[in-house]
Amino acid sequence: MRSFFWGIFLVSSGLFLILKHFFHWNVPTLRVLIGLFLVSLGLSILIGGAGYKDSSNIILNEGSLKIESSSKDYNIVFGQGTLDFSDAELEQMAKKIEVNTVFGSTKIILPKDAAVKIEANSVFSSTELPDGSSLSFGDRSYLSDPQSKGQADFTLEVNTVFGNTEIRH
To answer: Are residues 43 and 76 both part of a single domain?
Structure first.
């Protein structure tokens, strides 16, 4: 959470305690403080959001994830993200990379010259493969091989639950 939460909560709690003492209000303090806590939490989400984003995760946020050679898992939960593999060095990437999308939207851009084995799993969602076919429920293996190499450079496991994933070259 951002600093908005603590600022709103401490100021509103302080004002309440001053007014309660000054006007001799006979109200349950603990109940009011719990209510102020929940209202402050809601306001901080509306004002500044409660999203989280790092090098391999996007949660309640949106943005782009940079492909790193050390990371094997990328997660997008309640958000929108783009994974751009087009500038990644194939020799330094992991041989199996997992991308999870839950209640979100993900766009995956594959390298133009790489052969990629895609293992797509979908549950009540839409996973669009590079050839234009779509998967809504179940699993499918697909070899995206624009250079006709015959062998995959790396494997991309794509799991989509109640979301949308689009894979393009």
So the answer is: no
Return phi, psi of residue 162, to 5°.
50, 50
Helices (H), 49-164: none
The pTM of this model reads 0.71
From 123, 114, 103, select the one nearest 149 (Cα to Cα). 114
Query: How far is the C-alpha of 130 from the C-alpha of 109, rounded, in Å?
Result: 9
Q: Where are the alpha helices (DSSP H) in the chain?
A: 3-23, 29-48
DSSP state of 94: -
Q: Are 40 and 68 found together in one domain?
A: no
pLDDT digits (tens, 9 = 90+) for 101-140: 999 999 999 888 888 899 999 999 999 999 899 999 999 9
As a whole number of Å, the CA-based R_g of the chain is 23
Q: What CA–CA distance (Å, rounded) separates 143 from 68?
A: 22
Tell me the residue type at 78: F
The segments of the chain whose pLDDT lies below 50 read: 1
Q: What does DSSP assign to residue 111?
A: -
Give the total number of structural domains in the chain.
2
